[in-house]
Amino acid sequence: MNFDNLDNEELLRLSLDAINGGRDSEAISMLKQMLSREPGHLHATYLLAAQHAQIGLFDRAESGFRTVVAMSPDFSIARFQLGQLLTMKGAADEARDVLSPLFSGADALSAYARGMSALAAGDAQTGLRELEQGLALPQEIPALMSDMQRLRDNLLQSAAAEASPVAAPETPSAPAYLAGYGYGRSGDAE
């Protein structure tokens, strides 16, 4: 599809529809078109990073999230997703540094950030407690809640397997889930 006749606002809305519809290649094409016209477009940069994470291009996703956080340090969901990537990568100290501005909040995202930081540091008990606390709070981003529920469930499953006196089948460590969580969260740059 040729996107030349669409303006950036149209491309942004259509790329969100494509993301929500699971049409990754279409979304990526539209976002790249936007960024070719306006290289500093915050939301296009964020959404492209999220799409790169979604399709497993983690180096590109990390670079994009770093750019977004540098452009808008208060864009908390981008900061959180960068922290997730760093946790997944095993960069515990850097993950904590990236996530630490989110720690003092009383919302679900702050609890998830504290949990992710604990998990990055190898403290599964604290990580699980923080995830549980976050899940008990009102949720602004349903996709994030679903990912944190899966992460919690994997941690619980791993803990149960370790506690069982019977040799349990090998359970992979809980992955740091990455998805596009949108960008309209209150307090985030819009």
Explain what this protein looks like in three dimensions.
The protein is an all-alpha fold and 190 residues long. The chain folds into two domains: 1-72, Tetratricopeptide repeat domain (Serine Threonine Protein Phosphatase 5, Tetratricopeptide repeat), CATH 1.25.40; 91-162 and 174-180. The chain is built from nine helices and no strands. It has helices at 8-20, 24-37, 42-54, 58-71, 76-89, 92-99, 108-120, 124-135, 142-163. Helix 3 (42-54) packs antiparallel against helix 4. The longest helix has 22 residues, at 142-163. It is elongated and about 65 Å long. It starts with 7 loop residues before the first helix and ends in a 27-residue tail after the last helix. The relative contact order is 0.12. It comes from Lysobacter hankyongensis. This is Tetratricopeptide repeat protein. Pfam families: TPR_16. InterPro entries: TPR-like_helical_dom_sf.
Short recap of the structure:
The protein has 190 residues and is mostly helical. It has helices spanning 8-20, 24-37, 42-54, 58-71, 76-89, 92-99, 108-120, 124-135, 142-163.
